[in-house]
From TrEMBL:
Pfam families: Band_7
Protein name: Band 7 domain-containing protein
Claim: Mitochondrion is one of the keywords in the record: no
Record localization: Membrane
């Protein structure tokens, strides 16, 4: 009867059972509630007796030192020792029953190899990046993942491909900062159960196919030529307007035409040493014709 009730409860709450199984699959990194059993305690007592009998020699094997930037994760009889990671400084291990692994807490950087990516607008590009991360929890980085560094590298490659696959070429070329921040948040969330903190992600280089580079260069050159022609046309239009305004002003005063005429002759004579024939002014000719 009890088994039927249990099976019925499992059918009613499948999601709850899945969550409990996932929770049980996670390793307890606190080290609390560790029980070694009779054999374990017997081995521990025997190891302590051996250490006491060989005290001058065994003390060299029991004392270990870790640096300021390191932590030591101790496994006692295959279980995590109480108190979490040790260090920095001196800590003691039992040679026969304890095993420890050092973890470096400094920031580590690695290059993501160039990835062949097909963008949203069907353009094949090669993109590489650099990732900066550090171990935030030494115990989780040892107990929850086999190789934290290798797993982070592989995850960075797949995240780079997945994220850039949803972007167009123009977005990849112009919005690198947004892409880098999105990759950083995605990697940081995925590596949090491993005790790893992703601090920064940077897109290093985006390499385009040679034919596409030539096409983009031709397009940019054509755009520059068109812009130059438009600017030149606008300059000629503005100059013609100014000349028309100057002509209107000079037409109101005949003396200004004569002054402009003399100024032009002066500028010509200053540039080149040549003989200049001065024709009679128009006013003198018109007066003579009237007479």
């Amino acid at each position: 009867m009890k088994s039927q009730q249990d099976s019925g409860s499992n059918k009613v709450h499948p999601q709850r059972n899945g969550q409990e199984n996932q929770y049980n699959a996670m390793i307890d990194t606190s080290g609390e509630g560790t029980e070694y059993g009779c054999c374990g305690w017997a081995l521990l007592i025997l190891s302590m007796i051996i250490i006491v009998l060989t005290f001058p020699v065994a003390i060299c094997m029991c004392v270990k030192v870790v640096q300021e930037y390191e932590r030591a994760v101790i496994f006692r009889l295959g279980r995590l020792a109480k108190g979490g990671a040790k260090g920095p400084g001196i800590f003691f291990v039992i040679p026969c029953t304890d095993e420890y692994r050092k973890v470096d807490l400094r920031t580590v950087s690695f290059d993501v190899p160039p990835q062949e990516i097909l963008t949203k607008d069907s353009v094949t590009i090669a993109v590489d990046a650099v990732v900066y991360y550090r171990v935030q929890d030494a115990t989780m980085s040892i107990a929850n993942v086999e190789n934290a560094d290798g797993a982070t590298r592989l995850l960075a490659q797949t995240t780079l491909r997945n994220m850039l696959g949803t972007k167009s070429l123009s977005e990849v070329l112009t919005d690198r900062e947004h892409i880098s921040s999105g990759m950083q948040s995605t990697l940081d969330e995925a590596t949090d159960p491993w005790g790893i903190k992703v601090e920064r992600v940077e897109i290093k280089d985006v390499r385009l196919p040679v034919q596409l580079q030539r096409a983009m260069a031709a397009e940019a050159e054509a755009a520059r030529d068109a812009r130059a022609k438009v600017i030149a046309a606008e300059g000629e239009m503005n100059a013609s307007r100014k000349l028309k305004e100057a002509a209107d002003v000079m037409s109101e005063s005949p003396n200004s035409m004569q002054l402009r005429y003399l100024q032009t002759l002066t500028s010509i004579s200053a540039e080149k040493n040549s003989t200049i024939i001065f024709p009679l002014p128009i006013d003198m000719i018109s007066n003579m014709l009237k007479k």
